[in-house]
Amino acid sequence: MKRLIFSVTILTLSLFVATSCSKGKKASSLNPGKKSRTTGSAYAKKGKEGFQVASFAGQPAGPNMVFIEGGRFTMGTLEEDVTYTRDNIERTVTVASFYMDETEIANIDYLEYIYSISQDSTREFVQAALPDTTVWANEMSFNDQYVDQYLRYPGFRNFPVVGVSWIQANDYCKWRSAIVNAGLSAKYGDGSKKKMGLPFGKKKKGAAEAAAAPKVTGRVPIETGINIPDFRLPTEAEWEYAAKSMIGTQYIDENQSNQRIYPWDGSAMRKAKGKNKGNMMANFKRGRGDYAGIAGKQNDKAIITEEVYSFAPNDFGLYNMAGNVNEWVYDLYRQGSYQDFNDLNPIRRSDFQDEAKLYDKENFNSLIDNKLRVYKGGSWNDIAYWLSPGTRRSLDQDSSTAAIGFRCAMISVGPKGKKSL
């Protein structure tokens, strides 16, 4: 009798623990469960009729992309405003998490784009996409080798693409979105093993899993979680936040040990300690007529641009967020944007509350209009002042120079995935 009572007690406790664990397990975006928590209806299985909930392991990082954890930071210039523009006064803003290319887009990346669009686009569109190699030309400089060789010669293939306008950079982002998502759809959407030559890694699914994969043709529904968000140019706030990389200054709680003038600690352009102590931290113009240093000891490694993985990355893992080339950002330029911005994910995408008609460019009373875009970061052709992330300049969205390139960004949607594509 005692043994029976003991067994019943153990069974009751086991059921109680199991029930408690079951009730304690909450649904999430990654694990929504097998049935609706509000209706109790079971979700339909693959291949069956009814409301289906696709499996989802979180948003993966796109090729060449680094996850940038969002947060609060002080946006604005920390350098003396030597140009007296007062166009980036300090203010506190918050930027949501996002993804950004760890490097600038290189010549080889842009040539892949040119090749791809030449297969199915008009001659006019392809010609419009070509970088302007004449940006290197100068009647008083012998830069012929860059005009003829920089874009296509293999020795320059991993150097940042230049001569690209803001509009061309945006077109590249649209193409990249289409080609990457097409590769994901081919790989995961219809069970195909075709990889389209994209760097998605090895396919680890077995034959049974591949056969059970959702069969999707045409446009892939967003609910499948197969496609990733579109590539785009980063906003000015995102770019500045990523460049300052203040995550490297935190030591406890929400306190930060110091502010940053550049993407690294300190006010100097040289490495402060270690075996490379004294070496430059970025590629820039050191002074009048001095682009690199002396032969045999070219301290910043380059007379013009340098390969996109040159120099140490910042604390977010991003290369050349100061120097090498300036980079286009999404924002329309306005001198007073700092006082118009929303303080959450700020951006100026139009002339809202600061119309172009107020500036009267037609009568040459201003240079500001709705085609003026912001670029940041400093370049091989700039002095150290412009390498501070808070500084900003502008150029017409149709124009290009030998000192401006770009990199792409992407929003972070929901939980972060554990793997990259």
Structure description:
22% of the residues lie in helices and 12% in strands. The radius of gyration is 26 Å and the shape is globular. Strand 6 (250-252) and strand 7 (255-256) form a beta hairpin. It has a four-stranded mixed β-sheet with strand order 10-9-8-11. It is built from eight helices and 13 strands. Residues 1-22 and 191-217 have low confidence and may be disordered. The longest helix has 24 residues, at 166-189. The N and C termini lie far apart (62 Å). It has helices spanning 2-24, 107-118, 123-129, 144-149, 166-189, 207-212, 236-244, 337-340, and strands at residues 59-61, 65-68, 71-75, 91-95, 98-101, 250-252, 255-256, 326-332, 372-376, 393-396, 404-405, 409-411, 416-420. It is of the alpha+beta class and 421 residues long.
Which terms summarize this structure?
three-stranded antiparallel β-sheet; alpha+beta; four-stranded mixed β-sheet; single chain; 8 helices; 421 residues; 22% helix
* Secondary-structure class: alpha+beta
Q: How many helix segments?
A: 8
Q: Write down the overall geometry.
A: globular
Distance N to C terminus: 62 Å
Radius of gyration, in Å, reads 26 Å
What percent strand?
Answer: 5-15%
Unreliably modeled segments: 1-22, 191-217
> Helix content range of the residues, please?
10-25%
Question: Would you report the number of β strands?
Answer: 13
Mean pLDDT: 86
Strand order of the largest sheet: 10-9-8-11
Following the backbone from N to C, one meets helices and strands in this order, namely HEEEEEHHHHHHEEEHEEEEE
- Main β-sheet: number of strands, strand sense, barrel status? 4 strands, mixed
